[in-house]
Amino acid sequence: MTKGVFGLMATTARLAVVVGTMLVAVMTTPLIGAGQAAADVAGDWALTVETDQGTTAPSVTLEQNGAELTGHYSSETLGEATVTGSVNGNEVRFSLEAEVQGFGLEVVYTGTVQSDGTLTGQIALGDLGGGTFTGKRR
Length: 138
What we know:
Layout: H1 2-28, E1 43-51, E2 54-56, E3 59-65, E4 68-75, E5 79-88, E6 91-100, E7 103-113, E8 119-124, E9 130-137
């Protein structure tokens, strides 16, 4: 009976070591994408937007505070507007409210900062559809 108790104690001790080692490994392994610094997208951007309605060349000035974006948008098609958005790693999202033929329209840009510093992605124009865009910092 003594051998059984000591055997059980040894097995329990080994199990505690294995569980402890696994816990340390899990706690010290970084999560994918966690803590990834936000890309720097502050500055003046020249955009090229492609939609079913044609090509436009708006511009946006972005100010960045950590992951938060604010700024100003200017377009012959959509006019002038305030921009708000966010950056998560290389993923960028900003939006604005515009007026088209007397109707309010939320315009949403979602994109990725590329290795060459350009910004590429999608634009959503509410019920008017969407398209693609590229951006180059001036």
